[in-house]
Amino acid sequence: METGLTTQRQCFVCRIKCTMQSTDIKPADTKKMRIPFRLLLGIYVIVPILLTIVLADTFFFDNALRPYVNLSLRATFIYLFFFELPHIFASYISFADKEYLKTYKKLLLYHVPIILIAGCILTFFSTELAIMLIIGYTMYHAILQQTGIAKMLLGTKHLLHRYWSSLAVIIAISVQLYLVRVPTFTQIPLIYFFTFFWICVILFITFSTLIYLQAKPGIGKTYFAATSLMLTSAILFFILGYPFFAILVVRFPHDITAFAIYITHDTNRNAATINNSIYKFFAPLRIPILVLLPLLGIGLSYLLRYQLHIYDGIVYAGILVNFPHYYLEGYIWKHDTPHRKQLAFQP
User: Fold this and answer.
1) How far is the C-alpha of 15 from the C-alpha of 26, rounded, in Å?
2) Less crowded by CB within 10 Å, the N or C end of the chain?
């Protein structure tokens, strides 16, 4: 798993770099579906929307909304059902391809089963530790996707990039562990937690400001600012008592961006010839992948509805569904993999 964690830092950066290395489009690629950078930036519209709602509720409506945005099991289930799980299942659907199964045979037949068995054993002996691992790995995965894109779109390396990104991960993990109230974590004296937390926040804001001021004007600078504002908003929501928004503002950009990635990949992979067995099955319906993939993702989430209604069910679902996704993403977008060849971006 360590290898997967290490390579996860580079997977989304590689997705963009492979497109930015060449600005020319070959004749054969003129019909290739591309993801506009402005679309990736537009996904961050969730940040000003939630900021407006929270600030209006705080200053004009006497916190009337606050009781309804707790981190309840129902709210978690709804988000998992419509956003997180569908994009994860979308990533699995891409493997229903003979060439892909051959290319990733070692990962799918050996690495993934080991991860699943180890995760289930861990959950059986310590649900608490499993929850902490799920939260840590999930936030690591989600935050590094966004900070990786931000760093690449800036176009230039900055000495503080790595520290800025690491602090973002640490803050996100700390906030979610605190909100979920894992007993082992909550035993830490609050004075220690908040001292560490505020040091990280101050450093993150400082590094964000320095990088932003030294960045060249353009969409990269705007995307970097949006990414920094995303986490700063999560911190604000956490402090003001809007825990569900604190997690939503971080998870939504990740999940929707990832969905855009897989829709683009699957569309390009199956444009000339349908290589994916699942898409072949649904081919008579003539439903565009842009529509079919989200429907399939939500449909597969529906099959897990009973397991997700119970506490242990969510933990096991996190291990069995999420972990292989995180691990595989550390490989499938690197170098000249079949996945990477089908991905294209538009500046």
Assistant:
1) 18
2) C
Closest CA to 317 of 127, 114, 172, 108: 127
Residue 33 has a CB neighbour count (10 Å cut-off) of: 17
Per-residue pLDDT of the chain (347 residues; tens, 9 = 90+): 434 444 444 554 444 444 443 333 343 454 788 889 999 999 999 999 999 999 999 999 988 998 888 776 566 667 777 778 888 999 999 999 999 999 999 999 999 999 889 888 888 888 888 888 888 888 999 999 899 889 888 887 778 999 999 999 999 999 888 887 777 777 788 898 889 999 999 999 999 999 999 999 999 999 999 999 999 999 999 999 998 899 899 999 999 999 999 999 999 999 889 999 999 999 999 999 999 999 998 888 887 765 555 556 667 777 888 889 999 988 888 778 899 888 888 87
pTM: 0.84
Please list, in sequence order, all residues whose beta carbon lies within 8 angstroms of the beta carbon of residue 211, skipping any fewer than 6 positions away: 154, 158, 160, 161, 164, 224
For the chain, the three-class secondary structure string (H helix, E strand, C coil) is: CHHHHHHHHHHHHHHHHHHHCCCCCCHHHCCCCCEEHHHHHHHHHHHHHHHHHHHHHHHHCCCCCHHHCCCCHHHHHHHHHHHHHHHHHHHHHCCCEHHHHHHCHHHHHHHHHHHHHHHHHHHHHCHHHHHHHHHHHHHHHHHHHHHHHHHHHHCCCCCCHHHHHHHHHHHHHHHHHHHHCCHHHHCCCHHHHHHHHHHHHHHHHHHHHHHHHHCCCCHHHHHHHHHHHHHHHHHHHHHHCCHHHHHHHHHHHHHHHHHHHHHHHHHHHCCCCCCEHHHHHHHHHCCCHHHHHHHHHHHHHHHCHHHHCCHHHHHHHHHHHHHHHHHHHHHHCCCCCHHHHCCCEEC
**What's the angle, vertex CA 282, arms to CA 278 and CA 288, rounded to 5?**
100
